[in-house]
Amino acid sequence: MKKTKIFAISGSTRGNSSNYRILKFISEQISDWFELEIFEELDQLPHFNPDLDNENPPEKVAAFRTKIENADGVLICTPEYVFSLPGSLKNALEWCVSTTIFSDKKVGLITASASGEMAHEQLILIMKTLQAQLDENTQLLMQGIRGKINEEGKIINGETNIALQEFISNFENLFLVY
After folding, report:
1. Is the pLDDT of residue 178 over 60?
2. Angle between helix 18-29 and helix 158-176 axes, rounded to 10 deg
3. Model pTM?
């Protein structure tokens, strides 16, 4: 049986960030019906330039768009930087505005940061603008994340573990509804 393809994006470009570790945790927890690929080239996308956003965008942008287009769903896990989305994630999403690759695409959103409220609101707004298919049960704001996950990616906070397990279950259910 064909596995459901999930393309995961960490909004942090820092090596072994909390957001990357959360995506790794999810990839290990998600059922055998899913194949999760974590995008690790966010910092390699060129700065958005409308003059280059045409039939032949930069190679890295075209590859990024193709990954999204070929995925059955997208999972974004991001920190908040200075009460906003990280510039690298915003840049990547800007490269998608002129396309329809997110239209009706099933998307899960996690904001894991010290506070994260502003970035979470902005991410939801951007994904609605891109016409992604959002579900309240697959949006998660995890505040104070550094004290809830260790360097090995183990969730060390019981409530956080429960919230993530619930999120995973809800995200999987998006694809299992007939």
Report:
1. no
2. 60
3. 0.96
